[in-house]
Amino acid sequence: MLRQVTHTDQIVSLEFSDGTTARFHAIWLRDNALDPDTRAPGNGQRLITIGDIPADLSISTASLVGGALSVTFQPENKTVTYPADWLAVHAYDRDHDHPMGWTAPGITTWENGIAAPSADWGSMHTNPAIKRDWLAAVAEFGFARLTGGPTEPGALLKVADLFGYVRETNYGRYFEVRTEVNPTNLAYTGLGLQAHTDNPYRDPVPTLQILYCLENSAEGGDSIVVDGFRAAERLRDANPEGFALLCGYPARFEYRGSDGVCLRARRPMIELSPDGQMMAIRFNNRSSAPFVDIPFDRMEAYYAAYRQLAEFIDDPAMGVAFKLEPGECFIVDNTRVLHARTGYSGAGSRWLQGCYADKDGLLSTLAAMDAVHPEAAE
């Protein structure tokens, strides 16, 4: 609820019932008006352009009406009402200073010792609350497991169907992860793999990866996940200058694994938004191309920071390890969580299938479920 409203011709000042205050500019309020002439009632999309708003816009009146804000704009002589809770959620009159490498609300970084989020396949399909919590875990922690699923080839596509769509690549709709003769990718051998993000040579990268187990009787082959955001936080705290170098200069990645494929990308290993928010990690030694975008006098310091980040990623205290059983899978946010595996022997068999999907579909499904059942998000 609103307690008090004052205004000039360009600014509305509010005091909420909890004592907090906020100011809003006339142009912002008019651009974000909630009336059906400004926003389509069915989907909420804006019906006007910035050019449709008068350049000489001003506020003639602003008052409380039933606990909401009512504003009249000139020269349109247009009155719009804004709910108090909507204004509180969208207030921008606040401290916008953040430390470099801050993480968004709702993101929890982690190290070894975290209880791996997990759900049962059958329960996911019968209980929306379990599905919602599983999706929320992926959003918060960047990974989650799923157990008790079917063991026929292609079952991983049903996991993607829970929230979105498969992103097809040159590897196909999905790909096999098992030992091959003359493999096109080291993932198709029994070698151990350092923790990495997949496909950093794509722009944009696939934002989700699903790895689904069909057979796993070989000795070894444990899966490991590492929170890249947490590794970046450790680098930031230990070596701020090195952190700034990995954020400030692009690395290069390349893949030429088969005929007709030559993928290249130029992106920083640690990507920040303009206001310093941690956005993405790209770390994959196998796919690194020569770094040519770092100034000569900073190259040695860049490599020192790169080495230090790798040491944090390789630190056993960072990784969560588990061995997948047939019918189990895990999903990772490929812009944040790195995955690895221990080596495995030729005895027995290890057969996983993998596919890519997009995080916007998962977040959309989660937001839609929370909109229908907001109590589930509390």
From TrEMBL:
<dbReference type="InterPro" id="IPR012775">
    <property type="entry name" value="GBBH-like"/>
</dbReference>
<keyword id="KW-0560">Oxidoreductase</keyword>
<dbReference type="InterPro" id="IPR050411">
    <property type="entry name" value="AlphaKG_dependent_hydroxylases"/>
</dbReference>
<dbReference type="InterPro" id="IPR003819">
    <property type="entry name" value="TauD/TfdA-like"/>
</dbReference>
<keyword id="KW-0408">Iron</keyword>
<dbReference type="InterPro" id="IPR042098">
    <property type="entry name" value="TauD-like_sf"/>
</dbReference>
<dbReference type="Pfam" id="PF06155">
    <property type="entry name" value="GBBH-like_N"/>
</dbReference>
<dbReference type="Pfam" id="PF02668">
    <property type="entry name" value="TauD"/>
</dbReference>
<feature type="domain" description="TauD/TfdA-like">
    <location>
        <begin position="120"/>
        <end position="356"/>
    </location>
</feature>
<keyword id="KW-0223">Dioxygenase</keyword>
<protein>
    <submittedName>
        <fullName>Gamma-butyrobetaine dioxygenase</fullName>
        <ecNumber>1.14.11.1</ecNumber>
    </submittedName>
</protein>
<dbReference type="InterPro" id="IPR010376">
    <property type="entry name" value="GBBH-like_N"/>
</dbReference>
<dbReference type="GO" id="GO:0008336">
    <property type="term" value="F:gamma-butyrobetaine dioxygenase activity"/>
</dbReference>
<feature type="domain" description="Gamma-butyrobetaine hydroxylase-like N-terminal">
    <location>
        <begin position="6"/>
        <end position="87"/>
    </location>
</feature>
<dbReference type="InterPro" id="IPR038492">
    <property type="entry name" value="GBBH-like_N_sf"/>
</dbReference>
<keyword id="KW-0479">Metal-binding</keyword>
<comment type="similarity">
    <text>Belongs to the gamma-BBH/TMLD family.</text>
</comment>
